[in-house]
Structure formats: structure tokens, C-alpha cells
């Protein structure tokens, strides 16, 4: 039987570059939780190092794509989460990814190719350390649990809105919230 996914959660990052591994860390936490409390069968959890082609393939045709990624900001506030909710008709560039080519380029290319998800939620976490090595810094590691909660809540909101016949993209975009408020 072929699985039909409607929601994809993509953890973008490199686990061998400290805080750049926040996306995969959140996806791993969601996988751990799903062992005791399964996610709906329409939800796919995926890791991606930021390759634009892979990102497009993962979110193409999705009703909702949630992307968790590390971000750079000057001045930075490590652990702060930027929440950006976009529909295909709203395409301002997201915060700068920690990858040379990545999320911004994938969004632009998806738009040109007509392969954007119906709704895209980006949770971009400001990092403290992008050097080579494993493990998140403590301030960024503290964001993993609230981000996993936020992703699960977004999945529930989408499911409930779909059941009511309301598009989850009708909600307004929010940005620049702290990890505790996500």
C-alpha cells in the first residue's frame, strides 16, 4: 500500500555542526514521541541537510510543510525562534539559513516550478555555534521540546481546520516569537 502524506515535517541541518543540527534534533524528538503516541498516518517526518532539490521533493504536493532550521541573525539571540507562516501567494524570503544554498533558494525555485506546498511554516532557530562538532549548545537544546510541542500543535490545528472545512492557510502569519511562545 502506498502511503499518502498530506503533512511533512522537515528537520533541516547538519548534526556535525553543533547548533545547525536543531532541525534534525526536533524531528528525532518527534520520532521518539511517536513511539508512544503515534502521529496521524498522513504525517511524514524527514531530515534534510538543506539541498534545495530535496526540500522541494519533500514538500511538493503537501497541504502543510513545517520546516525547522537553524538561522543566523545579527545581532543574534541564540535559542530565539522565528516563526514564519506562508502560503503560495506570500513569498517574502525567510531568515537567512545557515546553509550556503538552501531554504530561500528552494522557496524561490518551488514558486517558479509551481511546487510549493499549500502552506509552509518555517521555525528558524538562532544558533550560537556552527563550528564542526556534535551536540547542540545548551541554549539551543532548550528549544527542542517547545519546538516539538509547537509542531505537534500545528499538526492538530491543521487536522481540525481540515475537518471543519477551513483552510489552515486562512490564519495570519506570525513571526519573531521566542521559543517559549512557539
From TrEMBL:
Q: Does the keyword Hydrolase apply?
A: yes
What keywords does the record list, in alphabetical order?
Aspartyl protease, Hydrolase, Protease
Q: Which stretches of sequence are listed as region Disordered?
A: 161-182
SUPFAM superfamilies according to UniProt: HybD-like (SSF53163)
Question: Which positions, given as ranges, span the membrane?
Answer: none
Per its UniProt record, what InterPro entries does this chain match? Pept_HybD-like_dom_sf, Peptidase_A31
List, as start-end ranges, the regions of compositional bias called Basic and acidic residues.
Answer: 171-182
In which family does this protein belong, per the annotation? Belongs to the peptidase A31 family.
Tell me what this protein is called. Peptidase M52
Q: Which organism is it from?
A: Streptomyces olivaceiscleroticus
Lineage of the species this protein comes from: Bacteria, Bacillati, Actinomycetota, Actinomycetes, Kitasatosporales
Amino acid at each position: 500500500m502506498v502511503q499518502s502524506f498530506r503533512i511533512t515535517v522537515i528537520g533541516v541541518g547538519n548534526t556535525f555542526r553543533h547548533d545547525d543540527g536543531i532541525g534534525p534534533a526536533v524531528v528525532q524528538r518527534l520520532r521518539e514521541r511517536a513511539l508512544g503516541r503515534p502521529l496521524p498516518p498522513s504525517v511524514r517526518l524527514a531530515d534534510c541537510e538543506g539541498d534545495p532539490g530535496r526540500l522541494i521533493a519533500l514538500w511538493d504536493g503537501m497541504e502543510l510543510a513545517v520546516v525547522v532550521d537553524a538561522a543566523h541573525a545579527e545581532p543574534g539571540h541564540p535559542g530565539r525562534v522565528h516563526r514564519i507562516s506562508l502560503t503560495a501567494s506570500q513569498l517574502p524570503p525567510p531568515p537567512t539559513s545557515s546553509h550556503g544554498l538552501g531554504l530561500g533558494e528552494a522557496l524561490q525555485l518551488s514558486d517558479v516550478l509551481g511546487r510549493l506546498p499549500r502552506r509552509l511554516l518555517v521555525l528558524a532557530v538562532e544558533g550560537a555555534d556552527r563550528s564542526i562538532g556534535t551536540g547542540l549548545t545548551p541554549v539551543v537544546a532548550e528549544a527542542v521540546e517547545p519546538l516539538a510541542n509547537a509542531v505537534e500543535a500545528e499538526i492538530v490545528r491543521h487536522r481540525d481546520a481540515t475537518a471543519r472545512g477551513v483552510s489552515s492557510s486562512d490564519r495570519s502569519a506570525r513571526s519573531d516569537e521566542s521559543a517559549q511562545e512557539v
